[in-house]
Predict the 3D structure of the following.
Amino acid sequence: MKTIFLAAGCFWGAQHYLKQIRGVVETETGFANGNTDNPTYEQVYTDSTGYAEAVRVVFDETVLPMKRLVQLFFDCIEPTSVNRQGEDCGTRYRTGVYYIDADDYSTIKEVFDEVQRLYCAPIAVELEPIKCFFPADESHQDYLVKHPDGYCHLPQALFEYARKANSERR
């Protein structure tokens, strides 16, 4: 199993999207790469802690290769948007890929380069090692499962796409 941390705007929709993908075995919402210990949602919401809303993703790389997971991550974000996804704006909604294993950098960077070639503007997605991650409280875990009609910046069709995506080849 491998672990990566993905920031795709509001973590409610990001978690729901990512857990639909075949090969993802565990997800957890939380806060990545900020500058305080044990931040609360309310603290992160002020945009004063440096954290991004993110999802810790544990996946089986024999089923879902790292490259494919990162490609699918890019399919759910607007990569040129700075500190904004959908109607959500603020530094907490910035996008990013935060890795544990330095050996994964070249694979992830390859996807970044592929995506950049599709845009005239520079992509605004962070690519960094994970420095710290603090889980969000239970009310933010699997939010869209608990609240199927809850707010989400991602369109419903994207969840269906995620369910089918890992069986398709790019």
